[in-house]
Sequence to fold (418 residues):
Amino acid sequence: MAATRAAAGAKPAGDRMARAAERALRVLGDGRTGLVLLVATGAANALAAFLPDGPRLLDAPPYALLLGALALSGVAAVAVRAPAAWREWRRPGAVQRGAGAREASLLPTDPELLVAALADAGYRARLERGRGRQRERWAIHAVRRGWARFAGILSHLALVVIVLGAAIGAAFGAESVFSLLPGDQALLDVPRPGFSSAVRLDSFEAEFGADGRPERLDTLVTFVRNGEPARDALLRVNEPGDFDGYLVHPWTYGPAVRLRVTTLGGSALLDAPVPLDAVRDGVPVGSAELPSVGLTLGLAITDADANELGVSVVDSSGLVDSARLRPGQDARIGDVAVALEGFDAWVTFLSRRDPGLGVLFAGAALLCGSLAVAFWLPRRRLTIRPRANDLGLFLRGERFDRPADELARLLERLRGAA
Fold:
């Protein structure tokens, strides 16, 4: 008999699981949980931006789990709050007096007239009457812009869309970094059959202020498809080029020198720009190999104001000779003749294809729009019920809303309907 009572009192396993799932859903959909996850995600991105190997953190499984938890939190928030918001919008509930509620009094008035006046003021109102002997007791419950609560709920879905866009970009996007000298070109992605989208660097123009800071950085490029020029473009800082689904950013730049190197007999060994793509003691330096004569040229800017270049010739035994040149000058250095034709620049490009970018921007737009609606068009709720000698009106806005002006306009309208 005791066993029978114990079995009858025990809850079925399915009910226990349902209750546990409901509790987990409410915890996950709680605004505080979402805020913690959002702050953690922002901290992870900030850390990745400051650390040298930070981008690797964003490719690690813990970051993916964090994004997944943030997305689940957004979905859970919608699942928990949307049904209640719908019920309240369609059937407004009672507003109780207390902190945050505005209270006012009205003269006794026919409730049907009050319902009509509230409808004219933009409220969805319902008249609730008692039953039987309580027929004379009544209350009016109303809500204005009840749909605005859905805007706040949509902000949670917007976070899900943003996370989805980031996930699509991480899974299916591509990124390439390459450096070009004027006249050089490179593919916008890793080589593969049928892929021919490329960019060619035409020129780089810069202007600097008296303090040495750049005032203008113009990168002139030509986008190439199937080996043929498709269009020209001017790229600037924060103004990338867009070609065949790729965003092309001019990322970094540096000086280059146009050299002509010949043997003493006049045979050409080098006739091309050479990038000074390293820095030693704050000075741009570079090098060029001359394998046919077993020499290496070491290059360094010795006087930036005078555009003076130091050239050293090195063989397997060490330094052979050195000289300093300015644009238009030439000199014999060891067994070669070196002419400095002028200075140029090299540019490093970042090419990125992100199929999730549109989804991410759509989520950001949805987030901004939903928050704008929630803050600038807040929901208002009110209840009117009879008291001993008058009618009590209780008006409540959102936590961030203080509807004093709304109350004044509403009283004027309702008193005019009496």
The first helix runs from residue 2 to 9.
